[in-house]
Amino acid sequence: MSESANKRSDRGRTLLRLCVAVGILIGIIVLFWPNVDGVHPHARRVACVMNLRTLGVALSLYAEEHGGVYPPADKWCDLLTANYAQERSFRCPSGGKGRCHYAMNPHVTSQSDPNVVLLFESAGGWNQSGGPELLTTEHHDGKYCNVLFVDYHVEHVKTEGIPRLRWEGEKENGQPSVPSTRPP
User: Fold this and answer.
1) Are 150 and 143 a contacting pair, CB within 8 Å?
2) Quick one: three-class SS letters along the chain?
3) Which pTM was predicted?
4) Which of 59, 71, 87, 141 has the fewest Cβ atoms within 10 Å of its own Cβ atom?
5) Which positions ≥6 away from 59 have C-beta within 8 Å?
6) Rounded-to-integer distance, Cα 10 and Cα 22, Å
7) Where exactly are the structural domains of the chain?
8) Are 113 and 165 contacting, i.e. CB atoms less than 8 angstroms apart?
9) How much is the pLDDT for 31?
10) Which residues, at least 6 apart from 120, have a Cβ–Cβ distance to it below 8 Å?
11) 19-52: per-residue pLDDT in tens?
12) Looking at the predicted structure, is the pLDDT value of residue 14 above 90?
């Protein structure tokens, strides 16, 4: 191969590397570029999911230290902030005012089916507990909400999927129970 062909080949690889680097940089800028509210919606969504995961770990640790029992639903925030989670984990970045933007399902136990709702997004408050009547999609433009399930996985539940959420249901001999038919 001639020397000029090698130089063209090197320039081509350099140009390709430069294009890839610029593409990655543009992707990062678009992902994290602030919108009018000051934070990109995707970054707020990720922060909300991470908060629910953190609270899931805190609930798991609490249950492990208390014989497999979750904190009482009317005191869950107080008990988790005492030893297991920082208060900033209780706020959805899109939630606005309020100390906590999540509520606990009072019908859940450590024996509940893994697909039963444990924590979910709600309006601002503290030690909130309840069911679908408290669930909100307002933090995410009415399109979805984030939900933590008994098995500690978090899902973005689109508005149309909310009626299919399970709010009650115990495991029976290792078998999941029949889903709840309570409307949201």
Assistant:
1) no
2) CCHHHHHHHHHHHHHHHHHHHHHHHHHHHHHHCCCCCCCCHHHHHHHHHHHHHHHHHHHHHHHHHCCCCCCCCCCHHHHHHHHCCCHHHHCCCCCCCCCEEEEECCCCCCCECCCEEEEEEEEEECCCECCCCCECCHHHCCCEEEEEECCCCEEEEEHHHHHHCECCCECECCECCCCCCCCC
3) 0.72
4) 141
5) 70, 71, 76, 80, 84, 118, 119, 152
6) 18
7) 1-33, 41-164
8) no
9) 52
10) 102, 103, 105, 134, 135, 145, 146, 147, 148, 165
11) 566 557 666 655 554 444 455 667 788 899 999 9
12) no
Q: Give CA–CA dist 150/176, Å, rounded.
A: 12
Amino acid identity of residue 100, one-letter, is C
CA atoms within 13 A on the CB side of 40: 11
Q: Buried b vs exposed e over 125-164: b needs ≥16 C-beta within 10 Å? A: bebbbbbbebbbbebbeeebbbbbbbebebbebeeeebee
Return the residue matching tokens 């680097």.
21
Structure tokens given for 108: 């859940």
Phi, psi (degrees; rounded to nearest 5) at 147: -135, 135
The pLDDT-based confidence of 57 (bands split at 50, 70, 90) is very high
